[in-house]
Design a protein that fits this description.
There is one protein chain. The protein is of the alpha/beta class and 360 residues long. It is 41% helix and 20% strand. The protein contains 11 helices and 10 strands. The chain has a 5-stranded mixed sheet, with helices on both faces. The protein has a 5-stranded mixed sheet with strand order 8-7-6-9-10, sandwiched between helices. A hairpin with a 4-residue loop joins strand 6 and strand 7. The protein binds 5'-O-[(R)-(carboxyoxy)(hydroxy)phosphoryl]adenosine and zinc ion (ZN). The site of 5'-O-[(R)-(carboxyoxy)(hydroxy)phosphoryl]adenosine has 19 residues, from helix 5 and helix 6.
Length: 360
């Protein structure tokens, strides 16, 4: 029997990247035919963070062009596409509206199914763009907007076991970098400054570290950095030592919380061996975090998998792939589907922002 080919266009515009990709699947084989990404970093960097209104405008300025480029690079026409998938949440409403309206318009005109994608499902499945992986696996998503542990039990069955109660990890890097005057995005700058710094110079708090769960809190850490910054001159040496101390503190927090998450994951699955943990999101680029997770992998006898950087950060390919999985199951959406700025992947997950992490 000939294997059926499914080809989907994926549109991503939930934060500060406009991205469109064409991905196809034949049997179990996934191929990314194109994945065009337009970053808005230059627009937002003078503000030290993403400005939602500017982000929405920038998406609407380039979306048509990025769609055209994705088709051209993939060498396919609209006729060769089976469905249109667009990120419909969570994210910044203005940006979501741009991608969703573009997707719906195409679907309506081309008479093809429209599929609304949860951005977090995209991240959860992104590893499958490059390799096959069996369910269940654990996802650690660490980006500018999200910090969570989710058990990917199988497609469309997700259990969030840990999250941040305040800032996302990338946000903590960006805010600390801003306090040190290092520029935006802060993560890569902190990593670079940390290389020559003394990681034991400043002792910073590790909120929630003793709670036997995998919830995070980073707001207190940022305040502690702010308190030290006002009492010191921001010399190059100070910036290096603070960057190194901050990164070291993050490493310790991630190590302990991931260990807790692995325990929860192990308790919830039948097979206790060969557990796999996928680490996605922009912060997964950090080499010292990767190293400390790899050490944890050896200790816990688990395998950590990192998608390539282009699929770790926001991209249309992961949205197209989630679209393919939904297309295969005929999970289509109506054209009146409303974008959802808040849209947890696990429908039963409790909203934790601002809450004390008191469960389990
Ligand atoms: O996934 P991403 O590209 O965009 C979303 O937030 O969705 O993640 C961006 C975040 C930023 O906060 C940035 O500072 C952080 O990832 N980041 C890093 C590194 N590279 C990017 N954080 C720590 N170390 C890095 N090398
Ligand atoms: Zn993301």
């Amino acid at each position: 029997m000939r294997k059926k080919l499914i080809r989907v266009i994926g549109i991503e515009s939930s934060c500060d990247e406009t991205s469109v990709a064409i991905v196809e699947k034949k049997g179990n084989k996934v191929r990314v035919l194109s994945n065009i990404v337009r970053s808005q970093i230059d627009i937002h960097k003078i503000y030290g963070g993403v400005v939602p209104e500017l982000a929405a405008r920038a998406h609407s300025d380039v979306i048509h062009e990025v769609i055209k480029l994705a088709l051209k690079k993939a060498n396919v026409s609209f006729r060769g596409i089976h469905a249109i998938a667009a990120t419909a949440g969570p994210g910044l409403l203005g940006g979501l509206l741009v991608g969703v309206i573009a997707g719906k318009t195409l679907a309506n005109y081309l008479k093809k199914p429209f599929i609304a994608i949860n951005h977090l499902e995209g991240h959860a499945l992104s590893i499958k763009l490059e390799r096959e992986i069996n369910y269940p696996y654990l996802l650690l998503l660490v980006s500018g907007g999200h910090t969570e542990f989710t058990i990917i039990k199988k497609f469309d069955t997700y259990k969030r076991i840990g999250t941040t109660i305040d800032d996302a990890l990338g946000e903590a890097f960006d805010k600390t970098a801003r306090l040190l005057g290092l520029g935006y995005p802060g993560g890569p700058k902190i990593e670079q400054y940390a290389l020559d710094g003394d990681k034991n110079k400043f002792k910073l708090p590790m909120p929630l570290i003793h709670e036997k769960n995998s919830h995070f809190s980073f707001a207190g850490l940022k305040s502690a950095v702010a308190n030290i910054v006002v009492k010191n001159r921001r010399t190059e040496k100070f910036k290096r030592d603070m960057s190194a101390s901050f990164q070291e503190t993050i490493n310790k927090i991630i190590f302990v919380k991931t260990q807790n998450a692995i325990n929860d994951f192990r308790n919830s699955v039948r097979a206790k061996k060969n557990l796999k943990i996928v680490v996605a999101g922009g912060v997964a680029a950090n080499k010292s975090i990767r190293q400390s997770l790899e050490q944890l992998g050896v200790k816990e006898n688990c395998e950590f998998l990192f998608p390539s950087m282009k699929y770790c950060t926001d991209n249309g390919a992961m949205i197209a792939l989630a679209g393919i999985e939904r297309f295969e199951r005929k999970k289509f959406n109506k054209l009146n589907f409303k974008p959802r700025p808040r849209w947890p992947l696990d429908k039963n997950a409790v909203f934790m922002k601002g809450k004390r992490a008191v469960e389990g």
